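EI: anyone free to look at a 392-residue chain?
SC: sure, send it
EI:
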Amino acid sequence: MTAQAVNRYLVVEEALRAAAPHALLDVARVHLRQLYRADAVQLLLADYALTMLQPVAELPYTSSPIPVNGSTPGQAFGAQQAFVEHRGGTAVTVHLPVTVRGDRLGVLALDLPDVPEPGDVAELTRIAQTLGHEIVVAERDTDLYLQARRAARLTLAAEMQWQLLPGRSCRRPEYDLGGQLEPAYAIYGDNFDWSTSAEHLTLAVTNGMGEGIDAALLTNLAVNALRNARRAGVSLADQAALADQAIYGQHAGRLHVAVLLLQFELKTGRVEVIDAGSPSVWRLRDGAVECISFEDQLPLGMFEDTQYAPQEFQVRPGDRLIFVSDGVHDVASPAGERYGERALARAISVTRLLPAAQVPREILQQLSGHRSDRIAEDDAMVLCLDWHGAGA
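SC: here you go
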């Protein structure tokens, strides 16, 4: 990269870091026009269902959405690479993924008078990533980008659940993660959480009983109790026990939370797991799909002072793990047929070539087809983990 190119990138980066939270796109437009001769600059953010890219605009913060499927911006979003679209003559539109550590936020689209050089495309891709980082920071102080993501109004329960998530995808050398909740605008009890350190990845898949705001409140209590225990540095079994006490102390056994709690050792692939409820685990290894069973333990909050004992299993590089809630494997078709193990195994096999971030949405779409046009009786959660192993 030339000194001029480095200076251009640094100019944009510094301007974005200094910009007001709501003005990131305006600042990006000014500098991309001056430094790269961009005729127009558009920021498209993925909606909660991951089916639409919502343009960030003036009030009410969005204009006509662009479908992910069948569009060039959708290609850039799905493939996570830049796409150059020719508009006639020498004019082009460059679509750049806006991604933060594997979490796919959307696409930055620039109209340019000429086809850019490969070095310019790489540089613009870095700018799109920097914009993504600044959006994540800015969301602490403005609702602009959260509002722009909405293709419909969220229920209050869904608002609580989406705000509780760490993200929808994550990438590290040892693994790729992707998750999705449905119905995206009316989710209530299902959720997932993750945290990584130098030695471990901890996952929690939760399903609070009940419906609507009651289920969302219960799941919020469970997730925050697990986080509080995890951040205290205690063992996986003690994390489950402390969260169990918190829920029992609040509801005295009237309500409980199904949890699948896992801790992966990044260097070895050794996994501790506590199965305290309905979420299940499926493994794709060497083309074969199988459900992994663990010893059932009591859901959190059912009884006072429940003790939990972790079990162990091993993941190998190349393994794909799929975590699903009962809203996936227990859903019935209009004829009363359960989605079942065979249909779920088939969906996992069909999506084996997709990256982890895309798998949950694809499996949930197949679930929607199984359910036909019926309104969901339960919410549903799918989380996908691709394990690469240490040194990948």
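EI: The CA atoms of residues 12 and 170 lie 25 Å apart.
SC: 👍
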